[in-house]
Amino acid sequence: MSSNHVVIGLMPLSPVPIKPSPPQGSTSVGQEPAPSSSKPVRSENSTGMLFGFAAYGLWGMLPLYFILLLPANSLDIVANRVLWSVIFCALIITVTRGWPKIATAVKNPRILGTLSIAGVLIVINWLTYVFAVTSGNAIEASLGYFINPLVSVLLGVIILKEKLRPLQWGAVGVGFVAVVVLAISYGKLPWIALVLAFSFGLYGFVKNRVGGKVDALTSLSVETAALTPFAIITIVILMSTGQATLTTMGAGHFWLLASTGIVTAVPLLLFGASARRLPMTTIGLLQYVAPLLQFAVAIVFLGEHMGLDRWIGFGVVWLALVILTVDQVNHFRKFSRLRRAAA
């Protein structure tokens, strides 16, 4: 499998690598120095785990935040999210003096074009996710992020013509069975989950094309800046048709919508701090925290129903993820042994 990034999407904006390769987006804001050799490894790992759980925990609780934004519709929420993310990123970039990096990225046509495409893919992901949560389909949304690692493996085969290891083929096959079971359960293809999984898988693939040339904050800033004109046009249209809620629902609602920029950027920065400190296998396991929390929130707080047939379908998905995770851990250990032997 390639070093495709596996994100929790809406979340996250920096997909998580599940293979030992240099992750794009693993650089946190403020240009953190690489962990000093004088610091105990255990201390670095503990700090990384803390940042990681904080990032994925915030992403996992996002359904509750989007419910608070009602009666704003998904277009209203996402347009504001883009706009306020740009504003918040600009503030951080100013404080950290990161404008030269933005200028370098914008002046490079390949990087600018790639990040613009990534922006289109992530806004599709955001729109689908917000629609799912606000329309009572948060469980299916969590399914999308559960199957995302399987989609990343599949994209490696389709796009990069990679050869899969036997356990990877097994995981993909079991995942296919799960989709069939869930399609029977829902009475239709779980399109929300599939759109989320494929849009985020493609997003990770596109982001991987720029490699380590831009850090997470620069990437998010350029992606959302490319979308800002469309976000402003959307907000204007919504205002003209009486559907915009930014200034019509009181101060509390205004600040909740304005905070979408903070809600978008902060988990990303926490993830960046975590990814600098933890092995990629650990990051790969942490990625399941967010969909697990989304799943729990949908059942416990949003009151969504899980029949026996859906439990069976999700169980098959989780089996596929166990198989994939075992393969990734074994492969990483083998890679580490070979690297040590070579050294």
Automatic annotation (TrEMBL):
The gene is rarD. It is found in: Cell membrane. It comes from the Bacteria. Residues 47-182, 192-325 form the EamA domain. The chain crosses the membrane at residues 49-70, 82-99, 111-131, 143-160, 167-184, 190-206, 218-240, 252-273, 285-305, 311-330. Residues 17-43 are annotated as: Disordered. Pfam families: EamA. InterPro entries: EamA_dom, EmrE-like, RarD. This is EamA family transporter RarD. It is a multi-pass membrane protein. SUPFAM superfamilies: Multidrug resistance efflux transporter EmrE. It comes from Arthrobacter cryoconiti. Keywords: Cell membrane, Membrane, Transmembrane, Transmembrane helix, Transport. PANTHER family: ACYL-MALONYL CONDENSING ENZYME-RELATED (PTHR22911), SOLUTE CARRIER FAMILY 35 MEMBER G2-RELATED (PTHR22911:SF137). The keyword Membrane applies. Belongs to the EamA transporter family. The keyword Hydrolase does not apply. Residues 27-43 have a biased composition (Polar residues).
